[in-house]
Design a protein that fits this description.
There is one protein chain. The protein folds into 2 domains: 220 residues, 5'-nuclease (Rossmann fold, 3-Layer(aba) Sandwich); 92 residues, DNA polymerase, domain 1 (Orthogonal Bundle), CATH 1.10.150. The strands form 2 sheets. Strands 3-2-1-4-5-6 form a 6-stranded mixed β-sheet, with helices on both faces. A two-stranded antiparallel sheet has the order 7-8. 50% of the residues lie in helices and 9% in strands.
Length: 334
């Protein structure tokens, strides 16, 4: 990542807005904060406050917010059970989700609601855009899905309890140390494990530890499936058993191979890969060489005062004016 003084590469901050809004809704509903029109604003305010803090921390050159298309879903069309079983959203949260795009647009920050898609797809496209344009990228989210985009040029700030400063900033090295899986294998790891929150079962009998071990020892699921298909998984079983001998654990090679070779196992894995893969070819609409276009920092001082002020929290307006009206280059030199 770039040196904070020389800043040889510019930085794109990609925000998974729905995940932050959901998290702040549940964390801040007790405040019952209202904007100047009397509408619920605690989730909006919490998200904005966190992003201002993230901007102050990372001094990005541009910021884009990914939003979900709440009217249609290509994934649900393909798999009607997608995300089924989730509790119905609170009306106050729905109201704030529906207003977020207009609020951020009014502030001068870039937003993208891809038709039929989700904020996760904007995160994937943001990571690719940064790579293709020679930028670095930080994805801000509370979800694990973005881990698949971690690379030498993309980090993920996963918001958990503790806010911006107390949340882990995941690099390829830190992802391995925390989850035991390399970034380039995370999608395969997730597809094997499944995702109950999206109602996507994993491969039967393959949990997180086994999935991480498989990918570490075999190198890729292509290698795993090829060995199962052409040699009944003998090489894979031997590799797993050799690892068990070295570590003094019970041999599981034949059991794991049997689970992977079970009817429907590969189909389940490949289905999950298709469902979990983020679209990385979206047009983000970013024009970094055109000053003043949406998403570029600094923002217009009048807009900051007027739009953030509408949330009716003077301390946040003051912070926003100081951070969002500062040139990122000068902020990085502080």
């Amino acid at each position: 990542m770039p040196d904070p003084v020389t800043r040889p590469r510019r930085l794109l901050l990609v925000v998974d807005a729905p995940s932050l809004l959901h998290r702040n809704h549940h964390a801040r509903a007790h405040t019952q904060l209202r904007d100047r029109s009397g509408r619920p604003a605690w989730a909006l305010h919490g998200m904005l406050r966190q992003i201002i803090e993230a901007i102050e921390r990372f001094a990005p050159d541009a910021v884009i917010f990914g939003l979900d298309d709440r009217t249609s879903s290509v994934r649900a069309d393909h798999y009607p059970a997608y995300k089924s079983g989730r509790a119905e959203k609170d009306a106050a949260l729905v109201d704030q989700l529906d207003r977020t795009g207009a609020f951020l647009d009014a502030l001068g920050l870039a937003t993208l609601t891809p038709p039929g898609l989700e904020a996760d797809d904007v995160s994937a496209s943001g990571a690719r855009w940064a790579r293709d344009h020679g930028w670095d990228c930080v994805i801000v989210t509370s979800d694990r899905d973005a881990f698949a985009h971690i690379s030498d040029h993309t980090r993920v700030l996963r918001l958990i309890t503790g806010g911006i400063d107390g949340s882990p900033l995941l690099t390829p090295e830190r992802l391995v140390s925390m989850y035991g899986v390399a970034a380039e294998h995370y999608l395969a790891f997730a597809a094997l494990r499944g995702d109950p929150s999206d109602n996507l079962p994993g491969v039967a009998g393959i949990g997180e530890k086994t999935a991480a071990l498989l990918l570490t020892l075999a190198g890729s699921m292509d290698t795993v499936w090829a060995d199962i298909e052409h040699d009944d998984g003998r090489t894979l079983a031997a590799t797993l058993d050799s690892w068990s001998v070295e570590t003094g654990t019970r041999r599981m090679g034949s059991t794991i191979v049997r689970r992977l070779a079970a009817p429907g196992a590969r189909e389940r894995y490949e289905f999950n890969v298709r469902m979990m893969s983020g679209r990385d070819d979206l047009d983000l609409g970013l024009t970094p060489d055109v000053p003043g276009t949406p998403g570029l920092l600094p923002l217009d001082l009048g807009r900051i005062s007027r739009v953030v002020g509408y949330l009716n929290v003077e301390a946040t307006t003051t912070l926003a004016v100081r951070v969002l009206s500062t040139d990122p280059g000068s902020a990085a030199l502080r």
